[in-house]
Automatic annotation (TrEMBL):
Protein name as it appears in the record: Zinc-containing alcohol dehydrogenase superfamily protein
SMART domains reported for this sequence: PKS_ER
Family: Belongs to the zinc-containing alcohol dehydrogenase family.
One Pfam family it belongs to: ADH_N
SUPFAM superfamilies in UniProt: GroES-like (SSF50129), NAD(P)-binding Rossmann-fold domains (SSF51735)
Leader sequence segment: none
InterPro entries associated with the record: ADH-like_C (IPR013149), ADH-like_N (IPR013154), ADH_Zn_CS (IPR002328), ER (IPR020843), GroES-like_sf (IPR011032), NAD(P)-bd_dom_sf (IPR036291), Zn_alcohol_dh (IPR050129)
Species of the source: Caballeronia hypogeia
Cofactor(s) this protein cannot do without: Zn(2+)
A GO molecular function held by the record: oxidoreductase activity, acting on the CH-OH group of donors, NAD or NADP as acceptor
Domain of life of the native organism: Bacteria
Record flagged with keyword Metal-binding: yes
UniProt keyword list: Metal-binding, Oxidoreductase, Zinc
Alphabetized CDD domains for the sequence: THR_DH_like
Length: 340
């Protein structure tokens, strides 16, 4: 089979790999959809690398179980099951792993599919059976791929923040994670102020139900948010852009006792601890989601009949990966997905 490899220097290549065979405790999926994540761009834009053993990219897998290894048990590891993948694998025995957070494991090095082990930008993918998350037939494979990281990251942040329908939430960045957050927050009854510098993404946020849409380049963001909240500021802010200025604005636009959650990767942030203390702010980082939260997010999408497929503005074939990432690198529009 052929799989996508990030070579750095804004280059991707399709290379040949053996079809995977499951070992003990493993299954093989026939990939139906593999999402494109903003974190891919850090590797895509990085320095050129000539791997001795290249790794297939793609950490938002969704597909159907087609082969099962020895010793595999569980309700989802059956031939023909529609599944997502929680894209981390660790020892499976420590407190963190058993609580659904293998990415927090300190017992063994954590494997990240699409980075440390072959990912989903290929027709088939081998994963540990205990990483499988069921995919309801009412959710498309593309939407399942989004939940496997980007949309699930927004959900995981809201779990940490304790978002309610009483909150006014400022969301900095309306890329795939930010748009997911807008959709999920509105479905939970929150008032949403969506911010992005890209016109198409602001339009998408409005169509997803954002109560107010702001361009940070038009005026002072902090003043604008305070005007929209009677001078008080938002009760919560979520930063998804990975930009230092967005994170700083997020921390400065919330009211006293407010909550700020930071999920955007890539920014180094400086702030006044004295100011944060005096406003009694709660500042949280959030890294993707637990395996239980991934399922909870999918259940919520079904229960509320959310149109998660509206996230996708670009659908690509595997042999279009070079064009797909060239366009994705522009960071305009919605989410991209590779469909098999």
């Amino acid at each position: 089979m052929r799989g996508v490899v990030f070579r750095g220097d804004c280059t991707v290549e399709l290379e040949s790999f053996p079809d995977p065979t499951p070992g003990p405790g493993e299954v093989v999926l026939e990939i139906k959809a593999s999402g494109m994540c903003g974190s891919d761009l850090h590797v895509y834009r990085g320095p050129r690398v000539d791997y001795a053993e290249p790794v297939i990219a793609g950490h938002e897998p969704c597909g159907v179980v087609v082969a099962i290894g020895a010793g595999v048990v569980g309700p989802y590891a059956r031939i023909g099951s529609r599944v997502m993948v929680h894209h981390y694998r660790a020892c499976a025995a420590c407190e963190d792993c058993r609580s659904g957070w293998p990415q927090m494991c300190h017992s063994v090095p954590v494997t990240v599919y699409g980075s440390d082990a072959h990912g989903a930008h290929a027709p088939y993918m081998k994963v540990a059976a205990d990483t499988l998350v069921p995919l309801d037939e009412r959710i498309s494979f593309a939407a399942g791929a989004a939940i496997s990281c980007g949309t699930g990251t927004a959900w995981g942040a809201f779990e940490r923040m304790g978002l309610t329908g009483r909150d006014t939430l400022a969301i900095f960045g309306q890329g795939p994670v930010g748009l997911s957050a807008t959709l999920l927050a509105k479905a939970q009854g929150a008032r949403v102020i969506a911010l992005d510098i890209d016109e198409s993404r602001r339009a998408s946020a409005k169509s997803f139900g954002a109560d107010h849409v702001l361009n940070p380049r038009d005026r002072n963001v902090i003043d604008a948010v305070r005007e929209l909240t009677g001078g008080r500021g938002a009760s919560m802010a979520l930063e998804t852009a990975g930009a230092a200025v967005a994170a700083e604005d997020a921390m400065n636009c919330v009211r006293p006792w407010g909550t700020v959650c930071l999920v955007g990767i890539g920014a180094e942030i400086r702030f006044s601890l004295a100011k944060m203390l005096r406003n009694q702010l709660r500042i949280l980082p959030s890294w993707t989601m637990s395996i239980m939260a991934q399922k909870a997010c999918a259940d919520f999408v079904v229960e509320r009949n959310l149109d998660l497929d509206a996230l996708f503005t670009d659908r690509w074939r595997l042999d279009q990966a070079e064009d797909a990432y060239r366009k994705f690198n522009l960071q305009s529009g919605g989410k991209g997905v590779i469909l098999m």
